[in-house]
Amino acid sequence: MTLGEYYRKNIPSKRDPRSSEELQWLLEELLHLEKGTLFLHEDMNVSHVVELFDQYWNKLKKVPIQYIFNYQMFLNHRLTVNKDVLIPRQETEELTLLAIQKIQEIGAKSVLDIGTGSGAIIISILLACKDVEGHASDISYPALRVAMKNAKAYNLSCEFELADVYDGLTGKKFDFIISNPPYIARFDYVEKRVKKNEPHIALYAKNSGLEVYEKIIKNLEDHLNKNGYLYLEIDEARKEEITYFTKKYLKNSKISFAKDMSGHLRFCFIQLL
Q1: 73, 183, 218, 263: which has the fewest Cβ within 10 Å?
Q2: What's the CA gap between 125 and 122, in Å, rounded?
Q3: CATH assignment of 87-272, given 3.40.50.740, 3.40.140.10, 3.40.50.300, 3.40.50.150?
Q4: What average pLDDT does this structure show over 251-257?
């Protein structure tokens, strides 16, 4: 059997939790091929490793590929991930790119990443903005260990805090704050592989998924400098409540929203005036 034949035979259906991208990744990983070169090797005879392919491909029914190989690419940076951290998604890449653009535009010197997880956001910001002082907080110590490992791999200096939002950051203010917090309500649908593997502390939030948003916005004026920005990844169903929190807790601010590349309302931007 050739590599191309194996790939075409196993392309998953729409109801399959696995994706064709995962299949390509898996085959390239097991054959030690460069990323994106699978189809340059379609005629390779793989009969001797089909059994190995099948073993891994079956594993992916229950476990995301990122947790099998313990890494994820994020804005072309290879980051360690494990079951202590959420797998960084494309939408978060989009948020991070928007943040980098704004940080450079306003000349921000200090950035806080709340709920850093693997450190994907703050690491990407620090790699793009060399003169920025980086800070990151997370409520999970195991997650912070992963983030610190990733920062060390890129020789980055970043202050990591074990904190529930701003706890431990008393008296500290920043020019820019960013967060992709947990925002799933317990009654929301979550794909089975995600629910069984990714850390619930990074997925779910109390108060119908609004708890962390409220904590961030409620105390924002104590931690964000005037004319600074807060960038959030959100669920579009939470737009009205986030707008309400902004009006309730912030004396003078400007709020706006933006869609992701898939057309879903995904990002919230708040500026203190």
Answers
A1: 263
A2: 5
A3: 3.40.50.150
A4: 96
